[in-house]
Amino acid sequence: MAVKDWDPARYGAFRDLRLRPALDLLAQVREVPDGDVIDLGCGDGAVGPALAARFRPGHHLIGVDASAAMLEKAAGRYDRLVRADIGGWRPDGQPALIFSNAALNWLPDHAALMPRLAAMLAPGGVLAVQMPRQGGAPSHRLLAEVAERLFPGRFPAKPAPVLAAAEYVALLLAFGELRAWTTDYVQLLDPVAKGHPVRAFTESTAMRPFLAGLDEAETRAYLAACDAALAGAYPPLPDGRVLFPFTRVFFILERS
């Protein structure tokens, strides 16, 4: 099963839960200087209207993403869209704000990545980042464990790139003022038509690298095994919903 691009419909099925952390991050961004506002890893543009309401008309709003399908959905929400690998993206000039919601967690080597982004900012510019830090939770750990049990050696373990909030402060303190925090979102997921609700939540994100390496028969076996494992870790509540805690790391750098 070749998963070559993001699926906007599947990703958007949990829009409210995915958008809330972005709005929580945006609420903590203070004033920014002149320059472009960059939504780095903008996806389908869900946070675009909130960024526009906050920073237009004084700032040019640019969405950057590698997914053609996502950028098609984001059309009209930004002044300009740029299709680019966010790991190698370079701005035109010095941005006033680089805002990134649940995107940089897909990139490795944050010890090099975050200082590189910070160095791009205009004086007084802001780097505002939110990332899931869910690798040790059953929702994500079980995906790898099931894959290794069914397909030994096919999916080598990779270290989770997202650091603790305090580590980003230490990493970026030389660039300016840092604020960092961690939030546990206690999410309630409704039942879904097929499979476990937590699988439905992760199928368009954390599960994608596994599905990309499986054929149709292997995919069916993998999804069934994941559903069974997740049912044990996240049993239904009396009303049929599932309690799904989800940890996210935030930091805001205001460059001096």
What features would you describe in this structure?
- The protein is α/β, with parallel strands linked by helices and 256 residues long.
- It has a single domain, classed as Vaccinia Virus protein VP39 (Rossmann fold, 3-Layer(aba) Sandwich), CATH 3.40.50.150.
- It is 36% helix and 21% strand.
- It has a seven-stranded mixed β-sheet.
- Helix 6 packs across helix 10.
The H/E string reads HHEHEHEEHEHHEHHHE
For the secondary structure, the number of strands is: 7
Major β-sheet annotation: 7 strands, mixed
Helix content: 25-40%
Any idea of the CATH class?
Answer: Alpha Beta
The computed structural class is alpha/beta
Name its key features:
single chain; 256 residues; alpha/beta; Rossmann fold; 21% strand
Record the SSE blueprint.
Elements: H1 8-12, H2 15-27, E1 37-40, H3 48-55, E2 61-65, H4 68-74, E3 80-83, E4 97-101, H5 110-120, E5 126-132, H6 138-150, H7 165-172, E6 176-189, H8 197-202, H9 208-211, H10 216-233, E7 242-255
Parallel strand pairs: 1-2, 1-4, 2-3, 4-5
Antiparallel strand pairs: 5-7, 6-7
In short:
This protein is an alpha/beta fold and 256 residues long. The protein contains ten helices and seven strands. A seven-stranded mixed beta sheet has the order 3-2-1-4-5-7-6.
